[in-house]
Each structure stands twice: as C-alpha cells, then as structure tokens.
Specification:
Helix content is 6%, strand content 22%. It is mostly beta strands. A four-stranded antiparallel beta sheet has the order 1-2-4-3, with no helix packed on it. The longest helix has 5 residues. It starts with 6 loop residues before the first strand and ends in a 9-residue tail after the last helix. The mean pLDDT is 96. The structure holds FE2/S2 (inorganic) cluster (FES). FE2/S2 (inorganic) cluster binds next to helix 1.
Length: 77
Amino acid sequence: MEPGQVEIHVRPDGSYKVYGPVVVRDVDGNPYDLGEETKADQLGTRIKLCRCGASATMPFCDESHVASGFVSSPRAP
Ligand code: FES
C-alpha cells in the first residue's frame, strides 16, 4: 500500500477490512472514536466494517457474521 492510501479488503464471508487513514461518520455526520476498533495486522492498521448486517456494534464488525452464517465472497472481474 502507498503511504496515505486507503485500501478496502472484502473478507470471505465476513467484514470489510479498511486500511489507511479514514474517518467513519454516523448518519448525523458525527465521527466515531476508532480507538477500540483499530487493530494491527500484517498489512497495517485497520478497522473492520460490517458487511453482513448482523453486527450489534454497527457499522463495525463484531464477528456476528460467523454465527449468522453469512456467505458472500465477491471477486473482482
Ligand atoms: S461482517 Fe462481521 S458482524 Fe457483520
């Protein structure tokens, strides 16, 4: 990834992993505190946004996709 670039990775049957400097705003335009949501992995720091609709901590992924049996693994053409 280029410095400052935002990258979104679609996870198999799971969340969107968002790498890079982002601000997530609620429906009123207020920013979320991403401190607890930001984690590091081999690609850098990231947050995970829910893609399945089952999270109790929307818009963030809380791993509910596992219990809900969410299935979606789209691939770029
Ligand atoms: S994608 Fe993880 S809870 Fe929805």
